[in-house]
Amino acid sequence: MTGSSAAGSGEPYGPDNPAPVIEAPRARTARTPKSTRTNFELYGWIFMRLSGILLTVLVLGHLVIQLVVDGGVSRISFAFVAGRWASPFWQAWDLIMLWLAMLHGGNGLRTVINDYAERENTRFWLKMLLYTATVFTVLLGTLVIFTFDPNIR
């Protein structure tokens, strides 16, 4: 090809096909409003990675202990749970698993809502429903773990 050719013609960049020029970003002035952005999404992203790793350990440990070490599903009964939750260790294990699972799942659903709910009003109400369900489940689960009475039978 002779002469100058337009960028994006499919040929490699060179003297006859220069790379496109990217404009410099606009400079801040005294009248430019300050950014109101926070690092919330970054912290949410980090939380998802760390909680996912910890949940993997907690859930796999829970399954191995419950299903392999302690005799399988046929052994799980009200008395089995009562004996388990008599120990602060198992209460803490289940509580951490509950909280992390609900917060991890809630944060994931919040991201899905932000990505797919197009109208601001719809996004707001879906997230309020999600937050309400998450808080209700966490509070109810915590209450059950700490107030479980093995003598109600």
TrEMBL record:
Transmembrane region(s): 42-65, 85-103, 124-148
Subcellular location as annotated: Membrane
Origin superkingdom: Bacteria
InterPro entries, A to Z: SQR/QFR_C/D, SuccDH_FuR_B_TM-su
Record carries keyword Membrane: yes
Annotated stretches, region: Disordered: 1-32
Protein species of origin: Streptomyces hazeniae
Primary location recorded for the protein, binned into one broad class: membrane
Protein name: Succinate dehydrogenase hydrophobic membrane anchor subunit
Keywords: Heme, Iron, Membrane, Metal-binding, Transmembrane, Transmembrane helix
Presence of keyword Heme: yes
